[in-house]
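Retro notes (design track)

What went well: tokenization of the new backbones is finally stable.
What didn't: we kept losing track of which sequence belonged to which structure.
Fix going forward: every design gets posted as structure first, then sequence, in one message. First example under the new rule, 493 residues:
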């Protein structure tokens, strides 16, 4: 074969080779184009073609009168009926209208919900209900214009005003957060009205019973670590007859113990008081007041008036010697004598306000067993008309609420049961008993000594001649023998 024929054959083969390569490239490009077109096709395109111009590009599918079910292994199960549902192109965003018969099941607890509108975000696992929304559990049935359920945190959060029923009463608060796993909650500022568990209407002493209570607080919380305790911050509680105000309060449903701390104030029809701490043991019908206890017992004619909040200031204790040194001398006339009789008489004890100061008071308030133990050098003072006053001091005291008797006691080996008044009477005793009954003037003291100024016309003639008429000492056996004293002190009418 000549070289010229050989060259033609080589060129022919090269041409065929390039033609084959070109065909392959063209075929590959065609296949690639077809594959790209297939990949770009929307599997839900047929649905869209049946609903021309109705769905925005972001929506993949719309359905009406459907049921939404959501359940992942180990997570809460959620179902609800919806009027309409729209699923986004990303298959993770759902929009609902007309949500009814909603159910959320978790840890053997069933919660129900309804709403005008809602949305589910599959990326962050959150269900948001809006419009007229309701959420109901074992302990509550609440309404708000928006609520969010966070599946990852297992929490229900309402940041807008919330109304409804909760824990046996009516609830109206600024916000509400509930943890499904821990069954704990935190409520914002608002009010709860109902009958507290354990019968709190019997928890506050010195007062008649009621049933319906109103609690207003800046914050109410049930913590997961102490599920039986409800915590209140800046709380005001009232049953219509009494008002209790405290910076902090704890109500233990399991032990039936109520603890109020801070500057605790109590306003009642019969008495007002302030203390650093009040603990109420409902099962025992016992209340313990500690820390700067100041109690104002109202006069009888004021005890029918409704309770109202007034400024209460802890009063400092008074020292007996300082009281004596500031006593002004009284003129010797008939009006003064009548005033002295009023000051010395115990029959009018309930006609004037009585202030009691004590570091601690323990009170049993069950009817038929009412009594109190007062410790820490208590004292009582009573202001009378025309600058008159009465004071009583003791190391400790006991009060019998059934018999209406107040027993006063000294410290061991001392006589620090002390009575003084603006007339100038002074009494020192080892112990004493006073009646707190209305129109009852009886009392008795043991191992007592006392002085009482008297007027010249009150002394026997023999005493006048002796010039002894400035003071008098009362005992049961005679002056200086350390006996007892009974009856009123000083001048008798």
């Amino acid at each position: 074969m000549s070289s010229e024929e050989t060259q033609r054959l080589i060129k022919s083969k090269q041409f065929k080779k390039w033609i084959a390569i070109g065909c392959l490239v063209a075929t590959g490009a065609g296949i690639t184009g077809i594959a790209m077109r297939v990949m770009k096709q929307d599997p839900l395109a047929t649905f869209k073609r049946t609903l021309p111009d109705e769905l925005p590009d972001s929506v993949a599918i719309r359905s009406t009168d459907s049921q939404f079910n959501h359940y992942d292994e180990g997570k809460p199960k959620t179902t609800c009926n919806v009027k309409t549902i729209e699923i986004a192109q990303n298959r993770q965003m759902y929009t609902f209208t007309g949500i009814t018969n909603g159910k959320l099941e978790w840890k053997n607890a069933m919660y129900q919900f309804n709403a005008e509108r809602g949305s589910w975000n599959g990326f962050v696992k959150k269900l948001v209900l809006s419009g007229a929304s309701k959420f109901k559990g074992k302990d509550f049935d609440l309404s708000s214009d928006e609520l969010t359920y966070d599946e990852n945190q297992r929490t229900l959060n309402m940041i807008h005003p919330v109304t409804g029923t909760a824990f046996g009463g009516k609830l109206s608060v600024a916000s509400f957060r509930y943890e499904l796993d821990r069954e704990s909650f935190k409520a914002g500022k608002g009010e709860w009205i109902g009958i507290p568990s354990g019968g709190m209407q019997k928890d506050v002493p010195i007062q008649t019973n009621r049933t319906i209570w109103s609690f207003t607080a800046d914050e109410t919380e049930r913590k997961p670590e102490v599920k039986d305790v409800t915590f209140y911050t800046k709380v005001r509680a009232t049953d219509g007859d009494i008002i209790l105000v405290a910076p902090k309060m704890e109500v233990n449903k399991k032990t039936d113990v109520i603890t109020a701390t801070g500057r605790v104030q109590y306003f009642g029809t019969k008495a007002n008081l302030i203390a650093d701490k009040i603990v109420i043991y409902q099962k025992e019908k016992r209340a313990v007041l500690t820390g700067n206890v100041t109690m104002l017992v109202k006069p009888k004619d004021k005890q029918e008036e409704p309770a109202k909040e007034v400024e209460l200031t802890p009063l400092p204790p008074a020292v007996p010697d300082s009281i004596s040194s500031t006593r002004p001398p009284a003129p010797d006339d008939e009006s003064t004598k009548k005033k002295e009789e009023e000051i010395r008489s115990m029959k009018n004890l309930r006609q004037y306000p009585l202030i009691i100061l004590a570091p601690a008071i323990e009170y049993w308030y069950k009817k038929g067993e009412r009594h109190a133990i007062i410790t820490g050098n208590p004292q009582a003072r009573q202001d009378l008309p025309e600058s008159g006053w009465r004071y009583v001091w003791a190391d400790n005291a006991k009060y019998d609420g059934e018999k209406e008797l107040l027993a006063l006691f000294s410290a061991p080996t001392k006589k620090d049961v002390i009575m003084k008044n603006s007339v100038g009477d002074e009494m020192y005793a080892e112990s004493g008993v006073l009646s707190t009954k209305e129109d009852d003037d009886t009392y008795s003291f043991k191992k007592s000594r006392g002085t009482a100024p008297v007027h010249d016309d009150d002394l026997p003639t023999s005493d006048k001649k002796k010039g002894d008429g400035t003071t008098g000492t009362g005992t049961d056996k005679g002056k200086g023998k350390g006996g007892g004293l009974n009856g009123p002190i000083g001048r008798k009418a």
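Added context from the reviewer: Residues 315-486 form one domain.
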